[in-house]
Design goal:
about 325 residues; alpha/beta; Carbamate kinase; four-stranded mixed sheet; 9 helices; 17 strands; binds adenosine-5'-diphosphate; binds magnesium ion
Length: about 325
């Protein structure tokens, strides 16, 4: 599969910011972001117009942990404020990395971050059933202690340890959508909907109120891709391709999936809820709402995948 350059939403995952447990400092995060932005700059050099979205789970976790440790002296940081903080800090890293890479390549481009609120439904059933992992991974004992002491809901996440879970309502409307579109129209590279957006609800008077929840970044990115009629929805994560029977001896890498095939494999349990599941769900949303093509790969393979040489491509049913 190969596409003419157009408008793309590129959702970058946690691996673009945190490479491992010993690579978590802010300079480490910047280095990881810089490596990913080099590949996105290459894409832009090929003629793509790009909106970058990103995860923020670990970064929100750091802020909440700092807040917790400082309670004897300072007010706590609510989750919506932590979201806003990370959108700014991660947006800054991407803006700086892209600026430097554009300058190195002699490209006349500028990236700008939009602090983005995303409306959710106060009556979304997710508020009764928290599922979204946030914060750092913990061992089971620590997790159970935090649950008892702080009233957290905790759960095991994709076999990688225990994490706190919070409600994950569906994204309904991107509040700053018109601003994102205007910036794209004017030729800016836009960074938006960080961490899935800051979840807000409307009160009786129509005022926005931030809530303690996390919107899935892949679903929010799909909503953005639908709303701006993106030609491509690219999910950049830690794997070059998606697999059937992932991590098992009979694992099989996938090159190209139709909507029906993706839906079937999702139903068969090939894409777990904590990791690959939401990405496939997001891609299905996008393709079912007029999207033309979606791609999952890792940052170093973005240019080759766009040439049709690798990655897993998703297309509408024929
Ligand atoms: P991100 O931080 O980018 O959102 P996640 O860790 O949430 O990434 O999800 C991507 C991960 O999902 C991959 O790195 C891989 O470990 C895992 N995964 C689960 N099922 C599959 C599958 N069927 N094919 C490929 N990767 C899978
Ligand atoms: Mg994820």
């Amino acid at each position: 599969m190969r596409l003419e350059p157009g408008l793309a939403v590129v959702a970058v995952g946690g691996n673009s910011l945190i490479k491992g447990p010993d690579r978590m400092t802010v300079p480490d995060q910047y280095e990881a972001a810089r490596e990913t932005m080099v590949h996105i700059a290459e894409m832009i050099a090929q003629g793509w117009r790009v909106v970058i979205t990103h995860g923020n789970g670990p970064q929100v976790g750091f802020i909440l942990r700092r807040s917790e440790l400082a309670l004897h002296e300072l007010h706590p940081v609510p989750l919506d404020a932590a979201d806003a903080d990370t959108q700014g800090a991660i947006g800054y890293m991407f803006q700086k990395a892209l600026y430097n890479e554009f300058q190195r390549r002699g490209m006349n481009q500028l990236a700008v971050t939009v602090v983005t609120q995303v409306l959710v439904d106060r009556n979304d059933p997710a508020f009764q059933n928290p599922t979204k992992p946030i914060g750092s991974w913990m061992d089971e004992e620590t997790a159970r202690r935090r649950a008892a002491e702080q009233g957290w809901v905790v759960r095991e996440d994709a076999g990688r340890g225990w994490r706190r879970v919070v409600p994950s309502p569906r994204p309904q409307r991107i509040i700053e959508l018109a601003a994102i579109k205007a910036l794209l129209q004017d030729g800016f590279v836009v960074i938006a909907v960080g961490g899935g957006g800051i979840p807000v609800v409307e009160d009786e008077e129509g005022n926005l109120v931030g809530v303690e929840a996390v919107i899935d970044k892949d679903l929010a990115s799909a909503l953005l891709a639908i709303e701006i009629r993106a030609d491509l929805f690219l999910i950049s994560t830690a794997v070059e391709k998606v697999a059937l029977n992932y991590g098992r001896p009979d694992q099989r890498w996938l090159d190209r999936l139709t909507v029906s095939e993706a839906r079937r494999y999702l139903a068969e349990g090939h894409f777990p809820p904590g990791s690959m599941g939401p990405k496939i769900e997001a891609i299905l949303q996008y393709l079912e709402h007029g999207g033309k093509a979606a791609l999952i790969t890792d940052p170093p393979h973005i240019p080759a995948a766009l040439r049709g040489e690798t990655g897993t491509w998703f297309v509408p049913d024929p």
